[in-house]
Amino acid sequence: MDIKINEISKIKKEIKVVLSPEKIETYADKAAEIISSEKAIKGFRPGKAPREMVEEKLGKESVWQEACNIALKESYSQIMKENDFPVVSAPDVQVQPAELGKPLSYKIIIELLPEIVLPDYKKIAKEIIKEKQEVKVEEEEIDKTLEAVRQSRAKIKAVSRSAKEGDEVLVDFEGTINGISQAGLKSEKMPFILGEKKFIKGFESQLVGLNGGDSKTFLLEAEASDSRGNKEKKEIQFNVKVHSVSERELPEMNDEFVSSLGQFSGLKDLREKLRENIKTEKEFKEKDRIRAKIIEVVVEKTSIDIPESLINRELDNMIEEFKARVAQSGLSFEEYLKRAKKTEQSFREEWTIDARKRVLGGLILEEIAKKENIEVKDEEAEKEVNAYLSRFRSQQVDLPDPENLKNYIRNLMKNEKIFQLLEEK
Fold first, then answer.
1. Which of 417, 311, 406 is nearest to 368 (CA)?
2. Whole-angstrom Cα distance, residue 314 to residue 1?
């Protein structure tokens, strides 16, 4: 076997291979067996016809071509194994037609994982962790949470009058920008408590004065995400239909109300439990912010060539995520593209920089795990998978593929170990 390996770039290689007729001949018997198992030879069981009979019935050329196919696959596998190439995608194979009794020549172009030279990620983590903010819980945050709990326990009574502040209004609504329905700005029979101001500024005030059965169209200016997730001011047209208007009777904030919420000794005890929960949630958010900043800075300080196949794979994932968000608005992806006067390719071009960052972030975490000998054992991953699945087995839901779920959870656990190491350092 004659092999020549040329470096196209640091992450791309060209491999030229020539296999002699003698080498191909060693696979001829196996080739005949494969052919006779696929094409019946009278008088023989599938795969049991002698090579001479196969060549007589189907031609020597057919056996030779099959032998060439086997030789190509096995020689490629041998080359990959001997050179330990970290291939990231299916190879581009170009084969010259192999004539009977002649050498087989083929060329393979492969993309490889890049060699990553990491910056001092421990030093970067140490500096960024210094920026970690102390989490505090203000009394007004507890008051706001208590009021939300109180609001959730309100008694509701339908009324035949126009809506006013404090009422609960059940509406259908759809927000469009330039005639295009927006993901996250469409819903049916959504309850709004007028005065809470939990939605787009000015939306609830437009509902004041409406009665059950009324419809209304109005414009609001608000921040909306573009195709890359960047925020910008947009004029949104809302079409709403009111189903009903209801009065809300709120319970008094006393010990009787507190006891209805659970095992609390009183209002003071409830406030302390809420304080703990709010603090825990804020600590998680701050931890995630710091971790994201660490990866962001490491990415900025890492310069490598990334295989196009990895970027394209990530772009595929981003497109699928975007399609899911569009579907939530009730549009097909094709209809969205038509209304937005865009193509899938234009989105891919816009998102290429973000896809590169996401790929690089993943490669960096893998490289850190390798350098720090961080791994997740099978039993660790299986324990988490079983815990996850046990929460859904009694429910009528489609469970994810166990192997895919295991890989996903293993990756999450590995990343958690990486960040824990960096935080300890």
1. 417
2. 37
- Outline where 49-131 has alpha helix (H): 51-58, 60-83, 121-129
Rounded Cα distance between 245 and 248, Å, is 10
359 and 310 in contact (C-beta within 8 Å)? yes
Among 46, 81, 111, where does a domain finish?
111
In the block, residue with structure tokens 């939605």: 199
pLDDT in tens, 43-90: 787 878 888 888 888 889 999 999 999 999 999 999 998 998 899 988
Number of domains, the chain: 3
Q: How far is CA 104 from the centre of its chain?
A: 43
pTM of the predicted structure, to 2 decimals: 0.70
Same domain, 378 and 341: yes
First-residue to last-residue Cα distance in the chain: 51
Residue 362 corresponds to which tokens in the numbers above? 């993943």
Residues 405 and 307 in one domain: yes
Q: Are residues 285 and 392 in the same domain?
A: yes
Tell me the Cα Rg of the chain.
32
> Do both 90 and 220 map to the same domain?
no
**Crossing angle of the two packed helices 139-152 and 267-300, in degrees rounded to 10:** 110
Query: What domain range includes position 188?
Result: 154-249
- pLDDT digits 0-9 by tens, 209-233: 999 999 999 999 987 665 555 667 8
Overall average pLDDT of the 93-121 stretch: 91
CB 171 within 8 A of CB 258: no
CB 215 within 8 A of CB 241: yes
